[in-house]
Amino acid sequence: MIVNSQIEEQAKQTALQPEQNQEFHWRQCWYPVCFVQDLPKNRPYSFSLYDEPFVLFRDENGQLVCLVDRCPHRAAKLSDGQITDGKIECLYHGWQFGSDGQCLHIPQLSTDAKIPANACVQSFEVVERQGIVWMWAGEREAAVDGYIPTIEELEKPEFVTTDVMRDLPYDQFSFTSISRRLTP
Ligand code: FES
């Protein structure tokens, strides 16, 4: 009986551990944004997460870049702009931003003037995995690549997939659902 009670106590403590040790923060997660195949070529792609606006584009090396979709100058949407030599250019006054969100060009500045350090946009870690674009909503340094869920069967040639993306209305925020059907 002593052994049984010890086992029960251990089981109770084990059951409690996950909740005690886990502190969920929505920013410390990977979020699926869209299928890679749905990204426009050489144009910005805008999306939102919990009502925060973000923009995706490819830099001059073809690497995906994810920035806050708000120009630090007058808050215009960067996604309304264009991609110029792998930089995103604001439609309003033409400021250009690079892959780390740093401002690389301000047309109104004289050539010898320094670009202010605060003329930058926050950037986020973004990864392509199994045909899906994932973004990490927190600090880039905290992103853990291994947390991105993968499906082993997607790598097998005998499986075909049907990819579906749709927006679903919910009370607090709209929600984009990405789903895949696997057929052996
Ligand atoms: S609002 Fe973007 S450059 Fe002025």
Structure in words:
Helices cover 11% and strands 34% of the residues. The chain has one helix at residues 2-21; strands spanning 30-35, 45-49, 52-58, 64-68, 82-84, 87-89, 96-97, 103-105, 123-124, 126-129, 132-136, 160-168, 175-183. It starts with a helix and ends with a strand. The mean pLDDT is 85. The protein has a domain at 27-149: Rieske [2Fe-2S] iron-sulphur domain (Rieske Iron-sulfur Protein, 3-layer Sandwich), CATH 2.102.10.10. The strands form four sheets. The protein has a four-stranded antiparallel sheet with strand order 2-3-4-9, with no helix packed on it. A four-stranded antiparallel sheet has the order 5-6-7-8, with no helix packed on it. The protein is mostly beta strands. β12 and β13 (175-183) form a beta hairpin. The structure holds FE2/S2 (inorganic) cluster. The site of FE2/S2 (inorganic) cluster (FES) has 8 residues, from loops. Keywords: 2Fe-2S, Iron, Iron-sulfur, Metal-binding. Residues 30-135 form the Rieske domain.
- Write down the CATH class of the domain at 27-149: Mainly Beta
Can you name the CATH architecture of the domain at 27-149? 3-layer Sandwich
Strand content: 25-35%
What do we call the CATH homologous superfamily of the domain at 27-149? Rieske [2Fe-2S] iron-sulphur domain
Morphology: elongated
Order of helices and strands: HEEEEEEEEEEEEE
End-to-end gap? 50 Å
Q: Number of helical runs?
A: 1
Biggest sheet: strand arrangement: 2-3-4-9
What share of the residues lie within helices?
A: 10-25%
State mean pLDDT (0 to 100 scale). 85
Q: What summary fits the major beta sheet? A: 4 strands, antiparallel
Q: How many β-strands, per DSSP?
A: 13
* Uncertain segments: none
Bound molecules: FE2/S2 (inorganic) cluster
Protein name: Rieske 2Fe-2S domain-containing protein
Keywords: 2Fe-2S, Iron, Iron-sulfur, Metal-binding
Domain Rieske: 30-135
Organism: Plectonema radiosum NIES-515
